Automatic annotation (TrEMBL), chains A, B:
It comes from the Bacteria. The keyword Transcription applies. This is TetR/AcrR family transcriptional regulator. Signal peptide: none annotated. PANTHER family: HTH-TYPE TRANSCRIPTIONAL REGULATOR BETI (PTHR30055:SF234), HTH-TYPE TRANSCRIPTIONAL REGULATOR RUTR (PTHR30055).
Length: 185, 185
DNA sequence: CGCTGAACGGATCGGCGATCCGTTTATCCG
DNA sequence: CGGATAAACGGATCGCCGATCCGTTCAGCG
């Protein structure tokens, strides 16, 4: 890649990171380009769609969360690991506004740029869930898809200004429904 | 109101009802006007904003749900009443696509056309919740705001194509977290 | 150096919600 | 019944959006 193209690309991602954190995933592309000091066409050449831009922005975060799941999968308590990972996932979503809807759409559409990252993340969560279920500390009638859906719902609550103040407590409520406490044999 | 105005207004609401059910709350206003056989300006004169249109469309549903809550508040079991009302609320949201985000925004903004309807609905739910809490069959560390948020989150899940298949089961999961079973004294 | 293809961005397109304003028409009253 | 009048109408227009086109510029290599 040419040096000037690389510079513009990096600048666009930096600007997009700030803008998405402040104004959410629906920020105007034209505005993004202006803030980065490039033309709209340049932005759209580097990232042909809004989704492609967000993919580049979010990919590393997804990979970190997936790695975190694998790290926790090797830790002592299956219950603690699952709970800690849920917490990490939900709190991460507060970084970018509107990211939850994006993920829900990406999981649905196999052609989405984010599809692979999302399914990998979901699978990582499923493994943590299954381990906790095997240990008898997570309710057995849940699967990975449903765990992912619950994470998304909690993240969505945190994204809504009206519900955000309750989001922390509601996380505890839902977590208590997922985790069943120590094994009862 | 002049007879022709009344006719157009009714026609617009009919068309909007279908369109919102099919394509969600973000349907193009221009398209709505076309489908109703009127000019865009006519649609916007009757309903100055999209929100005003949706308010007219949803108001009666809100009133029905509120009335249903009051009816259930007089029924036998506090637990059954709360559960039945939650079910009614969540299943109603499947009628119109995208309505959940609208409600979350309306609760936040006191100037919204839907604000009053939403707060009334929330208060109606809070009364059912408090009755179940007094009977010891709902967890005590929840308030009306949080109950409303949980309903919205479940409704949101049902609105996402990727999560909709799990929505029914997840309702049971979350409901089990709200309800604590028969009073344990 | 000079060439050349990659990268650039202004201009343009169709679509959106909102607004303006000249035209039509339902309604009321003489 | 017929004319006045205000209400209702909708085409045209505005500023915004994302997307695309295409002539210009310049980075990098032989």
């Amino acid at each position: 890649m040419r040096a000037d193209a690389r510079k513009n690309r990096d600048q666009l991602l930096t600007v997009a990171r700030e803008a998405v954190a402040e104004q959410g995933v629906d920020t105007s592309m034209r505005d993004l380009a202006r803030r980065a000091g490039v033309g709209l066409a340049t932005l759209l050449r580097h990232f042909p769609t809004r989704e492609a831009l967000l993919d580049a922005l979010l990919r590393t975060s997804f990979e970190e969360l997936t790695a975190r799941a694998e790290e926790l999968a090797a830790s002592g308590s299956a219950e603690d690991a699952l709970l800690a990972w849920l917490r990490d996932c939900v709190s991460w979503t507060t970084t970018y506004r509107g990211v939850t809807v994006l993920m829900a759409a990406a999981i649905e559409d196999p052609d989405s740029a984010l599809h692979a990252s999302c399914t990998t993340l979901r699978a990582a969560g499923a493994r943590l869930l299954e381990r906790a279920q095997a240990a008898g500390t997570a309710r057995g009638d849940l699967d990975g898809d449903e765990l992912f859906a619950l994470i998304a719902a909690l993240a969505w609550l945190g994204d809504q200004p009206s519900f955000a103040p309750s989001a922390g407590h509601l996380f505890e409520v839902v977590a208590s429904a997922i985790l069943t406490g120590p094994a009862r044999v």
